[in-house]
Design brief:
With 267 residues, the chain is an alpha+beta fold. 20% of the residues lie in helices and 19% in strands. The chain has 7 helices and 14 strands. It has helices at residues 71-74, 93-99, 121-124, 147-158, 169-173, 205-218, 238-245; strands at 20-21, 24-25, 29-31, 51-54, 58-61, 83-85, 131-138, 145-146, 163-164, 174-176, 181-182, 190-191, 194-201, 223-229. The strands form 6 sheets. Strands 9-13-7-14 form a 4-stranded antiparallel β-sheet. Helix 4 runs antiparallel to helix 6 (205-218). The structure holds iron/sulfur cluster (2 copies). One iron/sulfur cluster (SF4) binds next to loops.
Length: 267
């Protein structure tokens, strides 16, 4: 949907220049005001409403909102090729690797948000009998998150005493995996979405759910929680039994591993 024009527009001639301070590129995705005709074709393609029309005549990308997802550029709707990308600098570059599905995280070598989650547990063996695998999917749909909120959630989870998944890019960015804290310089970076992954024992499931509830009350974003465990030899699903017993709402998901993969880990 087209956003209302800003009531206090930045001078149009300074829009592009304002992206570059001291040689550092602050917002690699930008719109050339010299080419933009203000046709608004690109506006609906931004999932986080970062594009608005300034003074009713030129499109402008809000620096703080843009998650560098490239959706506006990839949509190829601009009739004048006014949408441009410029080289990315750290820590802004974090937005790109979490926002662009084709990006590969150099740490995990997995494209997208950089994790295989629990879907491949039959091969990876990330969690074994008596354990529960969690994924906390933050910022979707269409809200985004900064790393201050990611840290708030991670710190609440860490208090329970969990094992953050080492092959996950969010874990990689933590400076302390025991407390779930992050580097100060990335906390203001806003990403389209990211996933915290961890394992814990089935006995800690109640505490973990409570920790996630506490986190939900503190953050300025949205998140959904995936909770998965192996089917026991008796055919019971321990996590499901807990959720049922405590009337925790969930949607059963069909991503069931039936052991066709060749296990890379034995647990
Ligand atoms: S790169 Fe993505 S978030 Fe940034 S303005 Fe374009 S569509 Fe919006
Ligand atoms: S599609 Fe191109 S010309 Fe139209 S508002 Fe967006 S940047 Fe400007």
């Amino acid at each position: 949907m087209h956003q209302a024009p800003s009531t206090t527009p930045a001078p149009i001639e300074s829009l592009k220049r304002s992206r570059i301070v001291g040689g550092e590129v602050l917002c690699p995705m930008q719109i050339d005001p010299g080419k933009c005709t203000g046709c608004i074709a690109c506006v609906p393609y931004c999932p986080v409403h970062a594009i608005s029309i300034v003074a009713g005549i030129k499109a402008y990308i809000a620096l703080e909102k843009c998650t560098e997802c490239y959706a506006c550029l990839r949509a190829s709707v601009c009739p004048t090729d006014a949408i441009e990308e410029t080289p990315m600098t750290w820590p802004r570059s974090l937005r790109l690797v979490f926002g662009r599905v084709q990006s590969e995280h150099k740490e995990t070598r997995v494209p997208g948000r950089g994790t295989e989650e629990m879907k491949t547990n039959d091969v990876t063996g990330r969690f074994g009998d008596g354990q529960v695998g969690f994924s906390v999917d933050i910022g979707r749909p269409g809200v985004g998150t900064d790393f201050t909120d990611v840290e708030t959630i991670a710190m609440e989870i860490a208090k329970v005493g969990v094992e953050f998944e080492p092959m996950n890019p969010v874990t990689y960015l933590m400076i302390d995996k025991k407390t779930g804290t992050f580097q100060e310089e990335i906390k203001k970076e806003r990403v389209h979405s990211c996933i915290i992954e961890f394992t814990t024992n089935v006995e800690k499931l109640p505490e973990t759910i409570e920790a996630l509830r506490r986190a939900a009350a503190k953050v300025n974003t949205v998140f959904s929680v995936g909770c998965c465990c192996r089917v026991g030899k008796d055919g019971k699903i321990a996590a499901k039994e807990y959720l049922d017993r405590h009337q925790v709402f969930y949607r059963p998901n069909g991503k069931t591993n039936i052991g066709l993969g060749k296990p890379a880990a034995v647990t």
